[in-house]
Amino acid sequence: SLSLSLSVATGASGVNSDRALPSSEMYQLDIVLKRGHNLAIRDRGGTSDPYVKFKLCGKEVFRSKTIHKNLNPVWDEGTKLLVDSLQEPLYVKVFDYDFGLQDDFMGSAYLYLESLEQQRAIPVNLTLQDPHYPDVDLGTLELTVTLRPKDGSIEEPHRDTMLLKRTWRRSSKQQSVRLAELHRKHQLWRGIVSISLIEGRDLCPMDPNGLSDPYAKFRLGNQKYRSKTMPKTLCPQWREQFDLHLYEETGGVLEIAVWDKDTGRRDDFIGRCTLDLSTLAKEHTHRLELALEESRGSVVLLLTLTASSHVSIADLSLTPLDDPIERREIMGRYGMFRPLSNLKDVGIVQVKVMRAEGLMAADVTGKSDPFCVLELNNDRLQTHTIYKNLNPEWNKVFTFNVKDIHSVLEVTVFDEDRDRSADFLGKVAIPLLHIQNGEQKGYVLKNKEMTGPTKGLIYLESDVIYSTVKAGLRTIVPPEQKYIEEEPKVSKHLLQQNFNRVKRCILFVINIGTFINSCFEWESPQRSISAFLFFVVVVWNFELYMVPGALLLLLTWNYFITAGRESGDTVSAVVLCKEEEKDDKDSERKGFMDKLYALQDVCVSVQSALDDVASYGERIKNTFNWTVPFLSWLAISILCVATVLLYLIPLRYLVLAWGVNKFTKKLRNPYLIENNEVLDFLSRVPSDVQVMQYRELKFDPGQSPSKRKKTNPG
After folding, report:
1. Virtual torsion, Cα 513, 516, 520, 525, nearest 10 deg
2. Which residue from 93, 344, 637, 645 has the fewest beta carbons nearer than 10 Å?
C-alpha cells in the first residue's frame, strides 16, 4: 500500500510528478476516514473522545462521528466532495469532544489535492501536529482518497455531499445552478424531533450537602439545547418541551448529558446517554427512560418524530402558493372547521427573497459577497452567495411551517468571508401578523441592535396562511424559546435605557394616581362631581361581568383611536430613533468621568428602588413574624374588626362608604394632610436590615478593654 504523510506529501510514491494545473473542470474527491493511531490524551481518565473535521477554503465540509474513550478509533465512514480547484489543500483537524464545554484540539494536518494521482484510490497516512508545539507526537490518521474529474452532467451526490465554491472561478451558468441546488438540499430538514424533558430519577449527588443542581444538555448534530437548572435535588422535575430538526433520513443520534451547576467554578459532570433515533417509529409518541452510562440515575422524556412537509427552497418559477390549485388546497387545510389534531401545525409562511440594493461594501475591493439568512424561531434557511455585488438578486422562495402566529421573521444579510466568520450587513424583523399577503415591499436594513438604519434595502414578498382557531389556542401556551442567543453583556447604555423604560411605566401609574387624587382634592369641582357620581353609580350597580365588559370597551375605544394615529406613531418612532442617535453622539463627546457619573446615577436609582421593594416585603413578613409584638397585636385587632365588618356588611356598602369618605374628606377639612394608612402602618415595622441594626450585642467580660490591657505584654 501507499503511504502519504504530511512531511513528505509532495515526495511520496503514487503522487503525480506533474501537478495538476488549476482549471475550470469540476473534480470529485472521495474520502474514506478509516482510523486513528495513538491519538493524544485529553480527558482525565487517560483517554479522549475524538472526532475529525475536514475544511476546504476555510469552510467545514465534513465532520465525522465521535468515538468515545478511544485513542485508536475506527470510523470507517466516508464522504464525497465536489471541488472546482486543486490549489487549496484539504485541512484536517481532530478534536476531543467535551459535551457542554469547548472541545479540545488534538492535532491537524494538510492534504494537498494537486499532489494526488487521479483516477485511483490512494491510502493516505496523515501525521497530526500542533503548530504551537511541533515536536509533540499527536498520532496519525489513516484515510483513503480518490480524486477524479467530473465531466458532463453531474449526478446527484451522496446526501453528505457539500459543494465548495471558489469566488473567482465559475465554469458555466449551468454549473452555478447545480451549486445552488446542492446548497438547497444540504440545509433542508426532513422532520422534527419533539422532545418533552420530564424528569431525572435518582441522580448522583455532586455537592457536599448530598444533593445536586442538575441541568440537561441535548445535542443532535450541530443543534444544542440546555434545560433550566433545578436547585438542590436528585430527582429534578424539568417539565420542558422543545423541538430539534432532523436532517438525516436514518434519524441520527441524540446525545444527552446531565451536569451539576456550580457557581464560581467548573460545573460537575454527572452522566450521559445516547439515543439512536433510527430505532424509533415515526408519528408516534415514545415514553423513554434512559439510564445514564457513567453514573447512577436516569432521564425520563417523551419523544415524537414527525415529518416536515412544508419546508422548502425553490426558484421563483416554482412558487408553491402561486399555483391556484395548491393554494386552495393549503387554505382548505387551515380552514376554520378543520380538525385540531396537531396544534403545532398552525400554518405556513412563504417568503420571496427578490433582491437587495445599495448594500454596504465589506471587502477591500469595494464590493461584498452577500447572502441572506431567514430565521423563524429556531428554523433557519439561507440563500446562495452572490459574489462581488452590492445589488444582488437571489430570486428564491422559502417556505416555513408556522408553529406560532406571533413569531417574528428575521431576515439578515451577511457578507461571506473565506477565512473568518461572515460580516453583518443589515437586518429586518417582520412579525407574521404584520404581513400583507402578496405585497412586494422594500425594507430598509437596520443595524445589529435594530435601533437605526444601515446601508441598503432588501425586497421581499410574503404570504402567510394560518388557522385562526389553532393560532388562538397556541397563544395561551408557552412560546418557543430560541436555542441560540447571545450572552447578555453589561452595557451602560442598555442599563440606562431599561431604567428609563421602567421609569416611564411607573410614571404612568403615578399619573393615574395623581389624576384620581385630584378628584379627591376637588381641584376641579366639575371633574370631582362627575367622578363622584360615576363612582356611586358603578359601585351601587356593580356586577362581576362588568370587569371584562369594561376592558372590552377600552379595547374598542383604543382600536378607533390608534387607527387614525398610525402615521403619527411612525413619525414619533423616527423622531425617537433620531433623538437616541443624537444622545449617542453626545455621549461619545463626553469624558470618562461624565459617563461614570451617569452610570452612578442609574445605579443609585436602581439601588434605592430595590431597597424600597425589599423593605416593604420584609416589613410585611416581620408583621406576621411578631418582630414587634405591639404592631402584631395591633394588626390582629384591625383584622378582627375587618373580618366582622365584611361578615355583617356587604362589600358594596363598605366600598361605597370608603369612596364617600375619600370624596368628602377635603370638603370637611380643607387643610387635611393626605396619607395612606396601610403604608403608614408598615413604615413602623422594621425591615431585616433595621432589625440587625437594632439588635443588642451581648457583653463578653473576656473582651473588655481593661482585661486586654492587662494581658498585653507590651
Report:
1. 140
2. 637
